[in-house]
Every structure is written in structure tokens, then in C-alpha cells.
Amino acid sequence: MLVSVLASSSKGNVTYIESSQTKILIDAGLSGKKIEKGLATINRKMSDIKYLFVTHEHSDHIRGVGVLARRYPQLLIYANLKTFQMMKSKIGIIPPEQFVDFEPGTTMTIGDVDVESFGVSHDAICPQFYQFHCNNKSFALLTDTGYVSDKIKYKIRNANMYLLESNHDVEMLRSGMYPWNLKQRILSDQGHLSNDESGEALSDLIGLNTKKIFLGHLSQENNLKSLAKLTVSNILTEDGLATGHDFKILETDPIVPTKLMKV
Ligand SMILES: [Zn+2]
Ligand SMILES: [Zn+2]
Predict the structure, then answer these.
(1) Which helix or strand (DSSP H or E) is residue 197 part of?
(2) Is the pLDDT reported for residue 242 higher than 80?
(3) I need a labelling partner for 73 at 20 to 30 A (CA). Which of 12, 179, 203, 240 fits?
(4) pTM for this structure?
């Protein structure tokens, strides 16, 4: 598989995956135009993509879903039923035959890729994230969760590649401009993972197969790329993971797509 994180932040999230048989998007949290532009920078185009997996109904994940579904009739939208019901009013009308029900805790096969869904702890109706398997390699995405349960850790442990949330620095969030109730929401068990929580989760997740870790869904107000990377790296070093493993911690960006990388 090849992966490019096209956009990742609290403002918009889109990830692209391809195998020899399929081309997939996970979330469409930018405008249709911006997603097309992002794909063009990695020499790919929307008309070749047949599958879009939606994680939950927050606008930073679904902003472009309606436009893309109407503009590209070949596109199938995978989400669970509750999420689809919540999205409906926000994305406009899309033909029902373009919607595929994909419930949490189930697996689907798309060409040569197996896709597993799993529920997360976040303040949406039924949020779920995905792990993709192809040719004995796996890529797990996990953002928008207040904590990482043992069940999730068990499911996505030792993946070859991760896109993991590193949303905020707790001090920056606490001392920042956000209203009190929004701060509470972000810090809660149904909010987002801090840099520390991300490092702690990774410490349990990383295995000998793990080679690439994208830190994603950074808050533009309450975090810095350098701080996220430093905090996570320090935790992994403290936990003895700096030696004996050869993984790389990679940045993502709110608008600039990462290079296409091999899982
Ligand atoms: Zn989000
Ligand atoms: Zn969310």
C-alpha cells in the first residue's frame, strides 16, 4: 500500500491510500476543490477513487463528502448507519446507492485490501476508525478519540504504519484562548488525545513491524509540530523504545499533502 496524508488538523482531515487494485480516501474534511488539488500534488485524481470511508460526522471530516459524491458518481461512501443519518443534513442529497453501511467492529474486503472498523471514544454519534491490511502490511488510523482503550490497542498493535492523533499540548490548551467548556470538551474522555497521551498510546502500540508514524489532527491553536514530535519522542525514549526499533515519526500538515509513502 501507498499512503499520503493529504490534510490533517482540527480544521480538515483527508487521507489517501492505494493498493495495486484499489484507491481509497478516508474522510473528506476539506472542500471538494481542495481535495482535488491535494490529490493533484501527488499525481492522483478523484475520478480514479472508488471508496471513501467516513469516520464520523464532524465537519473537519465530512466537509467535501456531498460535493465529491455528486461530482463523482462512481464514489461509494462507507460509514455506519448512525453516522450517515447525522451527516445527511450537512452533506445534501446523495443517491442512496452510493452509500454502503459499515458498522463498527466489522471487516470488509475491497479488492486486495481488508478494512477493519473499530469504535472510538469521541463526542460524535457513532465514531469509528479503520485499519487497512494488504499483503501482510497494515496501516491504522486513529484520531478523534479521548482515550485509547485496551481493546483498541489490542486491535491495532504492531501495525506497520500509523496515523495517530497528537491534538494538543495540555499547557497550551489550558492557558489558551478557548472558552472553558470547549477546553473541557477537548480534555475529556470523549475529546482528543494530547501529545502526552499520544506518546503513551504509541508506547503500547509500537512493535517490531512499526516503521512509520504520522502524528496528526494537530490543533493549530494549541499545539506546534515541533512540540508534538518532541513530546512523543521523549516518552518513547523514556519507555526504552528508541533502541531496537527503527520507526520514524513523521509530520502532517493542515494543507500540504505528505509524499506518497510505502506502508
Ligand atoms: Zn476531527
Ligand atoms: Zn471529531
Answers:
(1) helix 195-205
(2) no
(3) 12
(4) 0.97
